[in-house]
Amino acid sequence: YGALAVRSEFVHETGLRILFGFAARIGGINDIGIELIAAHSTLHYLRVFFRVKKGATKAETSVKALGYVTQCNGCNARAWGTCPLERCPSCGTRVRSSGPLWTGKIVDEGVVAGALGFTEKAAWKEATETLAPLRGVDRFPPFSYSPERGCSRMKIPSVPVRRALDALAGAGFAAARQPFEENGIKTDAGYAEFVEALRMASRTSA
């Protein structure tokens, strides 16, 4: 797909965003823009849904949503922007960035809400569990954190995702389950704030 995918704690989201980014780049060549609807990751399968909009202006708008996402293996900070990084802005460690990929919104809230209402009424449990976490995901940056990895690095007992979410909320941060990874959290907290929330949650549990 003409992009670099660097190993991280959010590999499935990176893969989905690379797919969206590839569609935007191919569309741009042909004066076609894309409007994202939804995406999901199931086992080893990734699927994305989007509308196509003809016109050079639409194409240009889509291409502007392309960028790069970085996870530092030194301090574990995350960063994202329009250009790949050579060094971590937090600690100066050499890094490689994933991309080019889509860094904009990935959900049409109206469509997802309508589909979710249908699946709930039809009692389609798996479809509902796939759709529900997508709501509100665009409030957060294009990456996530793993409570399991964070606890392992700090050598503290594992903290369940639910308890980690409560700890982040208690610290004043927005947070939600990562819809594309088996064990992940989307939040507006930085990595230092995230691990501090894990530490507090671990103490509370103990």
How large a portion of the residues is in β-strands, by DSSP E? 15-25%
With strands numbered from the N-terminus, the spatial order across the biggest sheet is: 4-3-5
Radius of gyration: 18 Å
**What's the shape?**
globular
Mean pLDDT: 95
| Helix-strand makeup class | alpha+beta
Number of strands: 7
Give the SSE string: HEEHEEEHHHHEEH
> Count of helices?
7
Largest sheet: 3 strands, antiparallel
Topology of this structure?
Layout: H1 11-29, E1 32-42, E2 45-54, H2 56-63, E3 66-71, E4 78-81, E5 98-102, H3 109-121, H4 125-131, H5 147-154, H6 161-170, E6 175-177, E7 185-187, H7 191-205
Summarize the structure.
Helices cover 39% and strands 20% of the residues. The chain has helices at residues 11-29, 56-63, 109-121, 125-131, 147-154, 161-170, 191-205; strands at 32-42, 45-54, 66-71, 78-81, 98-102, 175-177, 185-187. α5 crosses α7 (191-205).
